[in-house]
Design a protein that fits this description.
Radius of gyration: 17 Å
Number of strands: 11
Shape: globular
Structural class: alpha/beta
CATH superfamily: Peptidase S8/S53 domain
Number of helices: 7
Largest sheet: 9 strands, mixed
Length: about 250
Amino acid sequence: MTFDDVVDQGRLRECLATGTGKGVKVGILDSGVASSLPELGGKVISNHEVVEVGRGRPRVVSLSAGEDVIEHGTACAYVIHTHAPDAELHSVRVIGRTHSSTSQRLLAALEFAVDQGWDILNLSLGTESNYENLARLADKAYYQGMIWVAAKDNKRNKVGYPAGLASVVGVDMDYFEDPLSFRFYPGKVTEVEACGVYVDAPTPDGGWQQFTGTSFACPQVAGIAARLREHFPDLTPFQLKTALAALRENQDK
């Protein structure tokens, strides 16, 4: 692959049309994933959880089966799977039943994910704490070619981290009829706007629900990234941003 391929719009559209995420590993740091749901096609390959024991540092343990405690992670996994049905999904439960986590749990999960060497991380979460440690890990991931796709805070004038880091693809939401459509705004802190309004996804109990939020726009972009990464295995975060800019719906802006 050459850089010229990444900015060739025709080549990119062809890759987007034919890509299925085959050979791409996507980590999902969230509330866990109900991995046995048939809608996920058996593509959740591994399940993990961040645990805190006493006053010790949080650590990541492997789980024999996936469980989603608040429906959030399963919905994100499904969105990624619809765009990239052949991608491997790997879940790390960071968020608990209170819909919250700690920055230390997030850091432990990020360190674990970076060590695993997955291709893409879907981060439908964020924090205002531990900026320096988050930036350090994001830089480490960037230099080893791992792409982080992170959701902006749902509050209009608040971004949060890691979405606000330059090496991360930050995602905001809007309504799009086609979930593959998105806008890209060079120079904005969160450059991408993707479909995050009325997103249909299964729930862990086998039902269906419509979800709205930046959390559900984020996996749309992670799924698109998986399609492109299949064709361009060495695609860097910078090149992904370049590709998204070339493919954006708002070409005239």
